[in-house]
Amino acid sequence: MRHAGFTWHDGALLAQGLGVSLGLFAGTFLIGLVLGSAAAVLRHFRVPTLGTLLHTGLELLRNSPVLVQLFLVFFGVPALLHQPLTPVFAAGLTLSANTAAFVYFIAVAGLDAVGRDQVEAARAFGLSRVQLVRHILGPQALAFAVAPLVGLAVNQLQVTSLVSVIGVVDLTKAGDILNLRTLRPFAVWTLVGVLYFAAAKTLTLLGNRWERRLRAHAAPLGL
Amino acid sequence: MIAVEGVVKRFGAHTVLDGVSLTVAPGEVVTILGSSGSGKSTLIRCINGLETLDGGRITVDGLDVADPRQLAQARRLSATVFQLFNLYPHMTVLRNITLAPELVLKRPKAEVDGQARALLASVGLAGKADSYPGQLSGGQRQRVGICRALAMNPRYLLLDEVTSALDPEMTAEVLAILGKLATRQPGGAGTAMLFVTHEVEFARRISTRIVFLDQGRLIVDLPTDQFFAADGGLAHPRIRQFLSKMAPAAPLAEIPA
Ligand SMILES: Nc1ncnc2c1ncn2[C@@H]1O[C@H](COP(=O)(O)OP(=O)(O)OP(=O)(O)O)[C@@H](O)[C@H]1O
Ligand SMILES: [Mg+2]
């Protein structure tokens, strides 16, 4: 068996894989953040049917493995609709919805943590619901939620590695290709691992900085 | 005018307000007395729309608070000072005061800022504009709460036991400010006040009228001097009993006439 050496091309492949992983993560996390928070606000204001429906759906998503969801979307949905999905589309859809589910539960807890008394004050002073969310609930819920959100982000970044199994050429898939060509699994997977670690660590550091800024004047609980 | 007409409020099977009627005309200072659990806070919360009514009607200058659109209008006419201050902890003192005037009354920022700073100065908190509520004492927080309400230029000020979370010294501090505010009313056109308080002596000094709530019913509504007259309010056994149980008046700071 011939051991092929590493080439410049391999570096390009890994860089491209890393780009796909990061892009997929950033895009789906952002979409999940928006959808999950919106659902949490609907629930907070007890919007009748829609709120319950969303709650049930997101509960299902949170309590099943991402890999199963991914297979369901990539293999199951096309079989049902007779319409093939591209791997990237299926991956984006699954990860966005999955992230939304986790964001939803974090956001609900954050909104519930904001003191009722100040919310009543804001209502008595005539703030509309939109103004209430924007100026009172939102900023404080975010201060409560930022730590779990940073944790979630780090986790979701790693979860993107699952999309390699449906053929998306992300960092893991790039490692796989490289491994098959060079037959140096230890070197390849160490390198891939370090790249994931570097990305996750950067995310944590950025998140912590953001958290410190947000919490500078966050409610001492129970004020 | 705030007009409360036959208001009924229930929590489950418990009828907390049982046909309460009351008016507060511009310029009046009306105090609600009553023992704990008699429904005083609930009545205030019905007027500012934090509770829905189970019967009767409340209007503020003709605006029916049961109707969401009219409630939004009514809330621009009155402002509430809360027992536990209810400040926004993530905002500076200045922002706490300017938020609603800017967002709800749509007044220009510069003008509202100026008024807020003047109000803060008038209650001795000129240096605290950029502090956060968590950095203030209870008495200071309540003074901010009062400034926040006054910045709405309200026709009606609703105050629910605004000193009961404060120690005697801070109570005196806040009562002195409210006393000034009440005596400044040029009978007829100024900010009307609806007070809930346990400070009977204070109520006696500043109120034009006193009403007494007993188990959800308003049993007496009299001008202040008649309320304390032997053949007026004191003729009611419930009121005599209530007044005799009140602690001696807290030390009051000088209230300028
Ligand atoms: N949200 C609620 N749910 C159920 N019961 C309530 C609620 N709010 C008030 N009550 C009940 O209504 C009654 C009147 O309460 P309220 O707070 O109006 O009394 P209060 O006169 O302000 O008393 P205090 O002097 O102690 O403040 C009490 O028996 C209270 O337990
Ligand atoms: Mg009360």
Set down the secondary structure blueprint.
The complex is a heterodimer of chains A (223) and B (257).
Chain A: H1 8-44, H2 48-62, H3 66-81, H4 87-113, H5 116-124, H6 129-159, H7 171-182, H8 185-215
Helix pairs in contact in A: 1-2, 1-4, 1-6, 1-7, 2-4, 3-4, 4-6, 5-6, 6-8, 7-8
Chain B: E1 2-11, E2 14-24, E3 29-34, H1 40-47, E4 55-60, E5 63-64, H2 68-74, E6 78-81, H3 93-103, H4 109-122, H5 138-150, E7 156-160, H6 168-183, E8 192-196, H7 200-206, E9 209-214, E10 217-223, H8 224-227, H9 237-245
Parallel strand pairs in B: 3-8, 3-9, 6-7, 7-8
Antiparallel strand pairs in B: 1-2, 1-4, 4-5, 9-10
Helix pairs in contact in B: 3-4, 3-5, 5-6
The structure holds adenosine-5'-triphosphate (ATP) and magnesium ion.
Order of helices and strands of chain B: EEEHEEHEHHHEHEHEEHH
What is the chains' assembly state? heterodimer
Rg of chain A: 21 Å
Ligands bound to this protein structure: adenosine-5'-triphosphate, magnesium ion
Keywords (chain B): Amino-acid transport, ATP-binding, Cell membrane, Membrane, Nucleotide-binding, Transport
Subcellular location (chain B): Cell membrane
GO molecular function (chain B): ABC-type amino acid transporter activity; ATP binding; ATP hydrolysis activity
Pfam family, one (chain B): ABC_tran
